[in-house]
Design brief:
This protein is an all-alpha fold. It folds into 2 domains: about 220 residues, Up-down Bundle (Growth Hormone, Chain: A); about 45 residues. The chain is built from 11 helices and no strands. Helix 1 runs antiparallel to helix 7 and helix 2 crosses helix 3.
Length: about 325
């Protein structure tokens, strides 16, 4: 592997960490809803606005910010975006009042809006089309681990050491990813870093995708916003029990999520195994339809075995001829 390739792979790893950071810091106030409300002497509905206002800014600012920065070099834009996230997290940790905390959250939301608008086109644009599925899977590891590990551990830490500590740690992580992107992301122009676009766009399907995604995400975040008060006030679950369940769930399911996400990266090999399995199922169905003895289809089983041997000869997601 060349030095340039190693550098690109390291940049993808740092970008995966950045997706973990953004998902965690976006939803962190949900887990700390009651703790922040007590610390700042505000109502829970006021603290809920930290999430609602964040989401509104992201919706309104995503497309304008993406268009404004379209002609700028990608590495400085992405580095500045992560730096702004670190500043917003640090300001949240140091906020003396609710108003300052709300402004800090809105500042973080601006960086969030731009980050998710450019992260996938930038990253996939560094690789040929055949490798872009692997890159998307790599980036998705961070965003998948955030709800399983980042948010539960952040909630537990906020319960134990105060709600400001998780925000301070996210500021440190954001600064680290900012420096990592600035030093590792290859220097490319704005057009070079863009992945290819579809040749036959479908407006109707695009609208359906956008609307269904918006409804699904809105419902998911609405549920998460009120799950903590529901557990504490209605279900009667103690705060300590929720901490234990969150930490235990992270330890139990975090490694599983990592393993399943890593399997996605072996998409080519998985397709080979699927073809082999489908070939065997098809041959068995033919035997059953014709009501022949099992021995009549021995040649079909041999074909399936040869297909299985071919799938096992894959290396790095490619089939050897």
């Amino acid at each position: 592997m060349s030095n340039t390739s190693r550098r690109t792979q390291a940049a993808v790893l740092v970008l995966g960490v950045s997706t973990f950071s953004y998902v965690t810091i976006e939803v962190l106030p949900i887990g700390l809803l009651t703790v922040i409300a007590e610390g700042l002497d505000r109502s829970r509905s006021d603290i809920g606005l930290l999430v609602t206002g964040y989401a509104v800014v992201v919706v309104l600012a995503a497309i304008p910010l993406a268009r404004l920065t379209l002609g700028l070099p990608r590495r400085p834009v992405l580095s500045a975006t992560l730096g702004l996230m670190a500043v917003g997290a640090a300001a949240s940790a140091l906020a003396p009042t609710y108003d300052v905390l709300l402004v800090a959250r809105l500042l973080t939301a601006l960086s969030h809006a731009l980050f998710w608008s450019i992260i996938f086109p930038i990253t996939t644009g560094l690789f040929p089309p055949a490798a872009r599925g692997w890159v998307v899977a790599k980036l998705s590891i961070g965003s998948a681990l955030a709800p399983v590990i980042g948010i539960p551990l952040g909630t537990w830490l906020g319960e134990q050491a105060g709600w400001r500590v998780p925000f301070a740690l996210m500021a440190v992580l954001g600064a680290a990813t900012c420096l990592g992107v600035a030093s590792l992301l290859p220097r490319v122009g704005p057009r070079e870093a863009l992945a290819g676009r579809g040749s036959t766009p479908d407006v109707r399907r695009y609208v359906v995708l956008v609307v269904s995604t918006a409804v699904g995400v809105a419902g998911f975040l609405t549920f998460n916003t009120y799950v903590t008060p529901f557990l504490l006030d209605i279900s009667g679950v103690t705060s300590r029990r929720t901490e234990q369940d969150s930490a235990g769930g992270s330890r139990q399911h975090g490694p599983r999520v990592s393993r399943h996400q890593l399997r996605v990266q072996r998409g080519d090999r998985g397709r080979c195994v699927h073809r082999w399995w489908a070939a065997g199922q098809h041959r068995r169905a033919e035997c059953g339809a014709r009501r022949r003895p099992a021995g009549v289809c021995s040649s079909h089983r041999d074909d399936s075995r040869r297909a299985g041997a071919g799938s096992r000869s894959t290396e790095g997601g490619r089939v050897r001829a």
